[in-house]
Fold this sequence. Notes:
It is a single chain. It is globular and about 105 Å long. It contains 33 helices and 29 strands. The strands form seven sheets. Strands 1, 2, 7, 8, 9, 11, 12, 13, 14, 16, 18 and 19 form a twelve-stranded mixed beta sheet that branches. Strands 26-25-24-23-27-28 form a six-stranded mixed beta sheet, sandwiched between helices. It has a three-stranded antiparallel beta sheet with strand order 20-21-22, sandwiched between helices. The relative contact order is 0.10. By secondary structure, the protein is an alpha/beta fold. A hairpin with a 4-residue loop joins strand 25 (690-692) and strand 26 (697-698).
Amino acid sequence: MTAEPATGSARTPGATASGGAGIAVIGTAGRFPGARTVEELWTNLCDGTDVTTFLSDDELRDAGVPPEVIRRPDYVKAAFTLDAYDRFDAAFFGISPAEAEIMDPQHRVFLETCWHALEDAGYSPGGPPTIGVFGSASVCGYQWHTLRDHPLARNSRYGIDPDSLRLVFATAPDHLATRVAHRLDLTGPAMTLQSACSGSLLAVHEACLGLLAGECDLALAGGVSVRVPHRVGYFHEEGSVLSPDGRCRAFAADARGTVFGSGVGVVVLKPLERALADRDRIHAVVRGSAVTNDAASRAGYTAPGLHGQVRVVTEALDAAGVTADTVTYVEAHGTGTLLGDPLEVAALTRAFRRQTDRFGYCAIGSVKSNVGHLDAAAGVTSLIKAVMAVERGLIPASAHCARPNPRIGFPSTPFHVATRLTRWESDGPRRAGVTSLGVGGTNVHVILDAPPAGAPPAGAGPGRGTRPVHVLTVSARTAEALSTLAAATGAHLEGDPGVTLPDAALTLHLGRVHRSRRLAFVTRDGDGRTPLVLRPGDARTGTVGEAEPEIVVAFPGPGSPHLGMAGDIYRHEPVFRRHLDRCAELLAPVLGVDLRDAVGRRPDHPRRADVAQPALFAVEYALARLWRHWGIEPAVLIGHGVGEFVAACLAGVFTLSDALSLVAERGRLLRAPFEQAVAAVPRGTPRIPWVSTVTGTWIGPDEACDPAHWSKPPGSSSHLADGLAAVVRGPDAVLLEVGPGLTLSAAAVRARVVPPERAIPSLPHPDRPGADLDTLHGAVARLWLLGAPIDWARYHDEDGARRTRMPGYPFERTRHWYEPTTSADRAPLPAPAGPATDPPSLRRHLATVVAGVLGLDGVDPGDGFFDLGLDSVMAVQVAARSTAQGVPLRPEQIFRHPSVAALAAALAAPTAPVPTAPAPTAPAPTAPARRTTGAYSPADFPRADLDPQGLDGLVGEFGAS
């Protein structure tokens, strides 16, 4: 017997024998032949759906296949195709049409799938946690077959130029992962791993290592393969790896080869301990993995090697701390080739025989028999199938295997082929092995477990929240996408009984990027799932502008308090309850009663005038603290009567204890004694500006501390109107009334200080008893619709909800494909009649040049270049084209003045000597810059001598597209 090479591959430390570490799979996404989603893939696998595309002669002719090829007997007219492979939502990612046209479709598909994978896990990109991306792609057939005659490639045969660099950046596999990191604002490791067919499972292995090393908190891992030309057949040669009939018959007696196809798959990974603590949905657990290479032990470079495969399975089992007799399913590489399948089963048998002498107890299958060999995406597709199998307790059939291959000798092995859909019966945990083998000898094996006992099952509820009212939010980039997503969300809530409203709300709040076009509605737990929408009318919608609204917090006074005014809020909102309890405890010695009886616990409590004002103060104060907890910080305050004492307390003039004592004394002391009472307590300078309705104008520090001010009665209605007019300082202001009723918000609308949609009460009118929670959370929804910064994490921090599966973003894909008949024959950009020198002609000239480089029909003067998708390489092209047309332009000028209007104004201004750039110095460490979708990052700059001040204004918030 030939001695086996020594072990020593890199391994993923997995669980120990007693169960310890592991990596949780908390999200999946993908597109596969015959399946637009992972769920559709699973349905096809369970149903045994044949997704092979058999192409007609007309389809092949339309695809450019010559008639003489179509007639050849060795030309197999079959393919595993991908839906919408040539379409992409470029605008969603801030990518220009010109850039999308030359981008490898694999990059586009992978980018969209990474977005959907994060959404499936319930996390949004662009912020904490730190997210890494690990990916693999096939050879770029788009570049070979479609772009070789592109105008940007005209000089590439003679050397590198800016045009050919654009093609490299758009098509090279090197940029697969880093493009995702750039467009999704991910700050963890970004690595493209190339090991041929095993590339995507290698990406999973490396992602696990990165997570265990603490290089990221969350990781995207997967691969993509989009074959170009796409809807065409292939040539079969007897004895080759390609099937003669378009079928991959893994482990079958009549197996004669594989069929290559297109697909993409991505999983989201997280350390198990952290996933359990965060109550993530856990689909499966990676217990261990290993990678080896066959080295020189195999017959040739493309031939499989026995010893390397034995090692990789053995080492993965060791890394996982499990034995082979506990693995009851193996998702194999299974290409259906004459040599590959027997050798793979022999290697698995040799590895398993070190720990078990059982026969036929472990099922084996290959997803390639269902969807074809997806090359760089093959490994992650196998993993996704195994993840769903261990999670759901079903083993799908491996297709086209009516009779197992007798050369394999299955009866003498631990394995049997899964030839039908079976329920997974196992004495221990459901445990699977997943193998992916690459041409060139890189082997990867992963050990996968079902979710641990006690983990929240994926898609299951209920959430443990006590809040019976929920705000559901949906947002999108366009009105059409918003409508589609809202409909999908409603259908999902009605059709999936495992999704609870608390979980859905948390996922929509924390697991989605909040875009400018928005829809929100309020729902209640109850018998049905139809939402109780915000009154009046249907669900409210809004479009958020660039400016964040200024929050004006208004505290009402006389005539506002009533019994039971916040009873449901007291029962269901812990933050409100804690602050109200504190007020009640401080006032109990003064009042001799528990004001909570009046506020909510006993709505039948007899009315007492000396309790009403302190109760009003306590409710308004506790509400204000609740709003602050939810992220709503007041820019300015206004208070009426008792409400002004709340404003003063929050602004820091009075302590809570002193403010409560003064309010309790206020109703029963004459003005002069009350002035003395105020003088007896400490008073501080206000930290938040506010307007007094006593005077109708702004309170100064001296007046705020003057005891005489606090002994005056509430001002007249004219003072109130003047105060409201003063406190609302612009069209972006929102007046939030924090207290019972609609006194101040209604007055502001009547005075036309704010429009009705920007006057928001926190509590209902007294004639709507029991509606306080609906009104409060309706106010949350209305503030979000206007762009207020709700802190959704703190909004949910005590409601027990968890992330769940919700519909992903409906990309509005359009065709982006280089067509020589249109693109290559585009007329050159017209040169101006003469050098443009005045601002109007400069604007026209620059708009034409920039639009031409970006592939747009036009550019508005105020549009930011980098928001439109311009990058440093394209800036060089803009500068070169402009200069060639008589308007000298340098790339750094584009970065300093990043719009047509700004650049034209700069070019028209009198010239000044260009200062000599100082020698570059190492910058001080700074936090990662946030950016607008499609904008540049500082790393885009090709020169070190750019003016650092030129960066100002170009780095904005991610997602504000």
